[in-house]
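Support request, please re-run this one:
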Amino acid sequence: MTTATIQQGNVIGKAQLLKHWQGHRNLTRRVIEAFPEKELFDFSVGGMRPFSQLAIELLSIGGPALKAIASRENTPYSEEGITATTKQELLALWDTATSTINEYFSQIPEEDFSQTFNLFGQYEFPIYENVLYFIDNEIHHRGQGYVYLRALGIQPPFFWER
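Re-run finished. Output below.
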């Protein structure tokens, strides 16, 4: 019996990864928009954080993490300074973060995505795994938002419409 060695190429490129992530971000933005103002900041189920706080967590990861990766700076995780008291303020922060993500993502050479980076001084993984974590974490929290919206009697956006 012989064993063949297969060299695997890329399944997804840098541009496709960013498009996929931004599709998720677009959907999460629509979830934010679907919330009534008061419930966005006050409503929770089972002791979970209100959706506005979950969105602040996502905002404190995406842009700041990519900035740290692009500059290879070991910056600690912080939500400090990321605040919103209205839906419009939260959406404005979301839109600014989208631009920040695009800016810093473009500064990371595609060949660097397999390099290890110690994100926030805590998560030492290849860059592409960190980006996949950002996406996974957003999907997780958006799922909580879907539960909240349904509990409020609001139909959330279809998850496949990114």
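Strands lie at 116-119, 123-126. The longest helix spans residues 127-151.
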